[in-house]
Predict the structure.
Amino acid sequence: MDAVLLDKLRASVGPAHVLSGVDLSPYVVDGRTPEAAVFPESIDEIRAVVAGAAEARVPVMAWGGGTAVAVGSPPREPGIVLGLARLNRLLEHEPGDLTVTVQAGMTVSALQTALCDHGQWLSLDPPDAERATLGGIIAANASEPRRHLYGTARDLLIGVTVVIGDADVVRGGGKVVKNVAGYDLPKLFIGSQGTLGVIVEMTLKLRPLPEAERFLAVPFECLKDAAAAVRGLMMSDLMPNAIELLDTEASRALGAPLAPLPAPATLVVGFDGLREQVDWQCAELLRVTTPFGARAAQPLSPEACARLGTAARDALTESAAVMRISTVPTQVGEIMGQGAEVARARGLTAAWSAHAGTGVLTGVLSRPRDRGEAAAVVAVLTEWRAAARASGGYATLEWAPLAVKSQVPVWDDLGAAGRLMRRIKERLDPHDILNPGRFVGET
């Protein structure tokens, strides 16, 4: 890195908050080591870092908890990691309005703990909540099982402050739920992967904590029956907060009581609300699913519930790739079954889980016996993507070694929408320094 830029970074955030050399090992992504990692403490310091990088045409990678940094193509050249760990404060909480304003570096777990004292919570349940930051959750649009009832970040974000690629500060939305004036700018940055701007503050909608919550696991003899039960459940009077469909491998990852003899397919359904309401829905669940072949309903421990979102990833000790597919809910069971068969035909093992009610699947592929052989992995992923497209959906390669990423595009074909997104990127990041390689459609 140019010595002049390094001196500017140290002057902007303080020498103690600029890392280099061996201290950069936690920030290596896809084998690429950044040239420096800086940790600002204010919006002005972030602006100074981005301005210096823009002037020198050095890439900037915003870094929250590091839980989603593997998504996308690797950076084309080393750059600067812009860590947000020091921007971790709860700025404003209005319990009566059910809103909270926080800095981007605050973790989900820390926020939930602070809100619990007021009987409230943020209805997002991403994996690894102790590491995942609010800014990262918004940038990655991360959500897990409870999205079935509560939605994603799009349903919760009402205000945002962002530093864009020319170091300007952009503010959108407001601090009240009914702020509807002008363009809905906050949604532009949801799922942007840090490629449009560095999210520094946000205002979010909250919900009262439910009086009770319970998750039940319902085993089935085949995936087809479990998928039919999902359709029956969605047409019933029940109001689950989560509907998760897991294959044998993913069920085993949840542990007891499912691990000893995992079923070919397991449907996990969650309910929350008033205690009497939850009790009634849990009892009604078996009545609704029995006509489709349900054998029983077993309660899940809190520890197993916490692993729901990562069940497929945890199922295989050595994975070769992780692909996320979005499709219509009616196609979930078919894609899971077809995906497992495609893997078996290539001599590989697959683990599948799905937010069955919203049509979002995660497929994980085992490593081939010959670690240097990527052809089988590439072939399976290509067929998985074809199946997603045939169902009217799309697929994203969430994680894979470089040997696989070089042959399987990370992002699906965006068509005309991709050109529109590129124009937005050019306006907000004119020097193309923000997370290069991770913008949708880049290879």
The chain has four domains: 3-83, 90-208, 212-310, 316-405.
